[in-house]
Design goal:
The chain is an alpha+beta fold. It contains 4 helices and 5 strands, in the order βααβββαβα.
Length: about 140
């Protein structure tokens, strides 16, 4: 079942985000940011839960952007646990998030993804997304 995340979900969501980023984030910092976003209406985090276990999550921010002159949904984190991939969970989360974004006045949904995530790229393209931007980073 897909639902909005709740405060009690933070530990399972952290495990998924650690998996996504291939690192272990500081627990206190993660929980502080999680709680801040949970209480901010511009964020929407959805989880796919089965039998009490969170198998996937999708976290996004909805905001008005000057370069769109409208509201846009940006997927910030999106992960399905390894043992549940290719079972349709990601698709259900994505469709749910896109519907939520549209219902909340967004004209577009977008995300950034690492170049090495080839399976994820194929998934996004199957869902109708197009690759039309480049993304640059610089460590500070």
């Amino acid at each position: 079942m897909i639902r909005k995340c709740e405060e009690r979900d933070w530990k399972q969501i952290k495990q998924l985000i650690d998996l996504l980023e291939n690192r272990c984030f500081d627990i206190e910092t993660f929980q502080r940011i999680f709680m801040k976003q949970l209480n901010d209406e511009s964020y929407a985090c959805f989880v796919y839960e089965y039998d009490g276990k969170i198998l996937g999550c999708l976290n996004m921010r909805l905001e008005e952007q000057l370069h769109h002159c409208s509201k846009v949904a940006q997927i910030l984190e999106f992960c399905v646990c390894e043992e549940s991939r290719s079972e349709g969970i990601g698709r259900q989360l994505f469709v749910h998030a896109a519907s939520y974004a549209k219902e909340n006045g967004c004209e577009q949904i977008e995300l950034e993804t690492s170049l090495w995530r080839k399976r994820a790229h194929a998934f996004y393209e199957r869902e109708g997304m197009i690759f039309d931007h480049a993304y640059y980073t610089m460590k500070l």
